[in-house]
Amino acid sequence: MRAPEPEDLEFLYQWENDTTVWQVSNTIAPFSRFTLKQYIETSHLDIYETRQLRFMIDLFSSGLEATKTIGTIDLFDFEPYHNRAGIGILIGDTSERGKGFANDALITLIRYAFSILKLHQLFCNISVENEQSLHLFQSNGFVIIGEKKDWLKNAQDGWTGEYLLQLINPQ
Description:
Blueprint: H1 9-16, H2 22-25, H3 33-42, H4 47-50, E1 53-60, E2 66-79, E3 84-91, H5 101-116, E4 121-127, H6 131-138, E5 143-154, E6 158-168
Parallel strand pairs: 3-4
Antiparallel strand pairs: 1-2, 2-3, 4-6, 5-6
Helix pairs in contact: 1-3
């Protein structure tokens, strides 16, 4: 995982404007390259200032150079008083999904959030239909603490629920 770089603009533009993932990211309008460029330019700012933090997920060969950028993982809705933040993850390169990279990134971000940022808790919101994400987060200690019924509108069935999951720092 690493901080966003200017070279990531096209990845972010492609992923943020992929309408197939808009439902899980609560996106309803496309992002411009200009807006994403501004985001990258300010990504060095402290999480206490921006209330969010994004890391790029890279694959590495046997050396120290990244071979491929495959996704992002974010902390969002950071609340410094309550020491909590939400987590979102996307493996944007569909050929790399299901290979354990999201799990590795999630484990790393949990450690960072609890050890470095000293957060008390992390949370995420996952559609009740997203079995893959539910398994990912639950296998890393997140617990379903509630369901928001008919929370997400979808084109196929009308409405679906969304689970709220939480992980409390064990220390």
